[in-house]
Amino acid sequence: MQHLKIILKAYHVGLYYAWKKYFSGMVEISEGDILTETADAIVSPANSFGYMDGGLDLKYSQHFGWQLERKLRTRLERDYYGEMPVGQAIIVETDHPDIPYLISAPTMRVPMNIANTVNAYLAFKAVLQTVERHNQHASNPIISILCPGLGTGEGRMPHERCARQMYQAYVTCALGQIEKRGGLAKAVENHIELIK
Length: 196
Fold this sequence. Notes:
six-stranded mixed beta sheet; alpha/beta; globular; Leucine Aminopeptidase, subunit E, domain 1
């Protein structure tokens, strides 16, 4: 995970500054259109069913082509009975030279307000774990990922909360700082901290 380049791309200045507060010096952060960048993979803050016809996913479908949604939905039908829960992610080839992979990581089961959930944390944690697993066996490892705000569009998660949750996922997965003491009481405390 140490060699993974993470590029956080904010569509809104508020998200940019929230990420800067938490991730300063750890990852690359910029503002603007995520599709103007190049990387090995791009994160889709998806719904659980793989429909890519709204929000940022619509921009992805228009950019990469609608075959990407069909490919994703076929994988979900085969591997997840048509529905991948929040907290899991899969990698699909885009057949595009600038961004060869899409990482679908649901932030919500269906389009809805997720402001008071830990879904951005669960989704980003799933992204990092899935890339790590992919890289253990892939002949073409993913060494750079583009990631938008997770749950900040249709999901209406406040920028500060999204940034805090994504940072905690990064600390856990990329830095290996796993909470091992305190039992369930500590887990509840951490959960409350993520949604404050």
